[in-house]
What we know:
By secondary structure, this protein is mostly beta strands. The protein has a single domain, classed as Thiol:disulfide interchange protein DsbD, N-terminal domain (Immunoglobulin-like, Sandwich). The chain has no helices and nine strands. The strands form two sheets. Strands 1, 2, 3, 5, 6 and 8 form a six-stranded antiparallel sheet that branches. It has a three-stranded antiparallel sheet with strand order 4-7-9, with no helix packed on it. The radius of gyration is 17 Å and the shape is elongated.
Amino acid sequence: xxxxxxxxxxxxxxxxxxxxxxxxxxxxxxxxxxxxxxxxxxxxxxxxxxxxxxxxxxxxxxxxxxxxxxxxxxxxxxxxxxxxxxxxxxxxxxxxxxxxxxxxxxxxxxxxxxxxxxxxxxxxxxxxxxxxxxxxxxxx
Length: 140
């Protein structure tokens, strides 16, 4: 019996998270994807179907935080013959978050996405992030 398979040594999508204070107790949290050439990931928009699945970004409930508005996405959107809009150069998902008190808080996020080429898709991947907001500790 012979088994054929391959291992994906490095996943073709790298994520970075950043925060920017935009007002007192209000932050813009950005999740930015860098996507390797020949691959793409799908937008949050639309229903599943076809070869890929939409990207989802979910946040764990936290009584110390309030999510303001919907998750925005910005990138060079493409559609072609794909069932969903997709991004092949990169995309940034942004969520505005407001703290309910002037204390440090943690935003736990879960990103689920699928990297595809024009011929195939990799298995869906999940990335988890913990974002520290209003960090009041001072370096020693």
